[in-house]
Amino acid sequence: MNRRLRVLARLAAISLVACLAFAQSLAAADNPKAVIHTSKGAIQLELYAEKAPATVENFIQYANSGFYDGTIFHRVISNFMIQGGGFTADMQKKTTVEPIQNEATNGLSNERGTIAMARTGDPHSATAQFFINVQDNSNLDFTGEGNSRSWGYAVFGRVISGMEVVDDIRFVETTRKSPYSDVPVEPVIIEKVEISDG
Length: 198
What we know:
The chain is an alpha+beta fold. It has 4 helices and 10 strands, in the order H-E-E-H-E-E-E-E-H-E-H-E-E-E. The model is unreliable at 19-27 (pLDDT under 50). The strands form 2 sheets. It has an 8-stranded antiparallel β-barrel. The chain has a two-stranded antiparallel ribbon with strand order 8-9.
């Protein structure tokens, strides 16, 4: 009898795990996707609309308006991240709409391959600029509301295809274009960002 109960318990546990995995795959399928077309190749993203709704909506609005077309990855640090979406190839900063609330409290970590919002010292100053983590950067995660640093940076998606393009970008030669550092010598152009449903 005990053996039969153990077998039933094991089958129930396996069924539960399978159901959870299926539910997660359905949730992932529902998430919007984005493709960042760059001069180095395409980077496909899954956007976490449930975990970062305001941030994802903001990113989609900028993408659909054509804001990102012709911008560049203007800050590239090979052991940190690649940042873009705010400057033209001649380093002119684009005019944005109002900033959004920081959603870094969503429990998502700045792991390699995730995309997060760039901001100033004000935790709630993110507009259009984003960055892709090229290594695990848990020091950028939310740890509290005490100050700008502890607020962290809001992750709102992850690279699902094209990480080799991200790695190509991370290793480009950079220079200083006053007052900006870590600027690629040869501009890495964001040609356009396309959004699609899950």
